[in-house]
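Hello Y.,

Per our agreement to keep a running log of every chain we model this quarter, I'm adding this entry. I've kept the format consistent with earlier entries: sequence first, then predicted structure.
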Amino acid sequence: MVWLACPYLGPDVELTAERERHVRRRHPNVSLADIADALATPDLVVRRPWLPDETLLVNEIDDRTGATHIVIVVLRDESRSEDTPRHWVMTAYLEDGVPWGIVEWQRS
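Predicted structure for the entry above:
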């Protein structure tokens, strides 16, 4: 398990070994460094009204694979009894454009 800084969300974000394996297996063009960068300094934050516990942190990237953005999907889990909710990476992938949703924040 790795904890990654995410100033936008506040607490560090958890990347479990299982989720890291998922990203490596299903999205091999995404590195741990890519994930850490997108969490630390996102270019865009998107929310989807139908998934209120999900936050998409998006970074523009170079054109190394034809994709233009890396998207990190972070879920918030408020089921634990501590004061701050647990934030964890569900997946990370490359995409041609910005994911659909409501832009909550954008770097100017």
